[in-house]
Design a protein that fits this description.
Layout (H helix, E strand, L loop, with lengths): L2 H4 L15 E6 L3 H19 L4 E5 L5 H12 L5 E7 L1 H12 L8 E5 L5 H5 L6 H9 L5 E10 L4 E5 L2 E5 H10 L2 H8 L3 H15 L3 E7 L2 E14 L3 E2 L3 E2 L11 E7 L3 H12 L9 E6 L1 E6 L3 E5 L2 E6 L2 E11 L7
Parallel strand pairs: 1-2, 1-3, 3-4
Antiparallel strand pairs: 5-6, 5-17, 7-9, 7-15, 8-9, 8-14, 9-12, 10-11, 12-13, 14-17, 15-16
The chain binds adenosine-5'-triphosphate.
GO biological process, one term: phospholipid biosynthetic process
Keywords: ATP-binding, Kinase, Lipid biosynthesis, Lipid metabolism, Nucleotide-binding, Phospholipid biosynthesis, Phospholipid metabolism, Transferase
Protein name: Diacylglycerol kinase
Length: 334
């Protein structure tokens, strides 16, 4: 039996399962280096041809999706509504964040992946082909419950949600270094954005130092003096398709934490090969935790990333919990 078969389906209040919902749509035109805009042009005729009720809003600037989702959630006049996000993982994160702060925090979300990484789609059995993903949405008659991560930063009085993962250290330094590299822009233009990540993985590997990490899981405190990669994840994927924690599931009501200790180059290369084989978590330098509640603390200033977006640099004190959100689609492996 697969994970979806055991997952209770949310009977969303106000959703009459027999009628087509009203579709609110947010498009991030710049997601995936312009793929968001192209995909919307491709799929809009489908909404017209099928006489679907919809309203589209286009994100005009970075962070705009949060405001658009708040407007939709607060002023939705259709009680049987679904919010479709056409964008990357960052746009989906913003839509969830905005929606959760409204009068209808549990309006079902749907996702048409058009980003460069699309890790949420990989982790939740959404096809990465936007047309196929749209079919998964339009053929659904009820939402499924998917885990989303919830975090609060005790030192910054800041809280929010994530759909994929929050990373401290290595992966976050790679995101920051890549975003600020001049090469990324022109490599993106020629659809070689992943090459920019490759260069920066090597750069960060040689430059970053290990740091002391305190982990609290299920009342147990663990000190890791030389942490290097620290990622709390909702599902197996990060970094655009890297299966960092094969055992993680977006339907088990738990979050997974991987901590990789700093080590020499030969061991890193060995672990990278094991990662490709899905065997890396067996080794002593790699720690794997799974829980409903995880706390992390660093004393040194470290980079952070959330769903592929930079969080900045600081000493982190993070409290993670898991929440559920209704998603409107039929998972591929169901
Ligand atoms: N009109 C806009 N102009 C500039 N930036 C925008 C605009 N609309 C949204 N953004 C920003 O685009 C950024 C990237 O979006 P997103 O993460 O969805 O795409 P991506 O990075 O290509 O995909 P992925 O995260 O899957 O790799 C987000 O930080 C978002 O705030």
């Amino acid at each position: 039996m697969n994970a979806w078969a055991t997952r209770p389906i949310i009977g969303n209040e106000g959703i009459n399962l027999m009628t087509e919902p009203f579709f609110y749509i947010i498009v991030n035109p710049v997601a995936g280096s312009g793929n968001g805009a192209k995909t919307w042009q491709q799929i809009q005729p489908i909404f017209e041809q099928r006489h679907l009720d919809y309203q589209v809003k286009v994100s005009q600037y970075a962070g705009h999706t949060i405001e658009l989702a708040k407007q939709i959630g607060n002023f939705a006049t259709h009680d049987q509504a679904v919010l479709i996000v056409v964008g990357g993982d960052g746009t989906l994160n913003q839509a969830l964040t905005g929606l959760r702060a409204t009068k209808t925090p549990l309006m079902p979300l749907a996702y048409v992946p058009t980003g460069s990484g699309n890790d949420f789609a990989r982790g939740t059995d959404i096809n990465q082909d936007p047309l196929k993903a749209l079919e998964q949405i339009l053929s659904a008659t009820q939402p499924v419950s998917i885990d989303v991560g919830q975090y609060s930063e005790t030192t910054h009085h800041h809280a929010g949600y994530f759909v994929n993962n929050i990373g401290i250290g290595f992966d976050a330094a790679v995101v920051a270094s890549t975003n600020h590299s001049k090469a990324k822009q022109w490599l993106n233009r020629v659809h070689l954005g992943n090459l920019a990540y490759g260069f920066n993985v090597l750069k960060v590997l040689f430059k970053r130092k290990p740091f002391a990490l305190t982990v609290n899981v299920d009342g147990q405190q663990i000190m890791i003096p030389d942490a290097f990669l620290v990622t709390t994840t909702n599902h197996p994927y990060f970094g655009g398709g890297v299966k960092i924690l094969p055992a993680a599931s977006p339907t088990d009501g738990k979050l997974d934490l991987i901590v990789v200790e700093h080590t020499n180059l030969i061991t890193f290369v060995f672990l990278a090969i094991q990662l490709l084989r899905g065997q890396h978590t067996k080794y002593a330098k790699v720690h794997h935790f799974q829980s409903k509640h995880i706390q992390l603390m660093t004393n040194s200033l470290e980079y952070g990333q959330m769903d592929g977006e930079e969080m900045g640099t600081r000493a982190f004190a993070l409290d993670f919990k898991v929440s559920q959100h209704p998603f409107w689609y039929i998972p591929e492996n169901k």
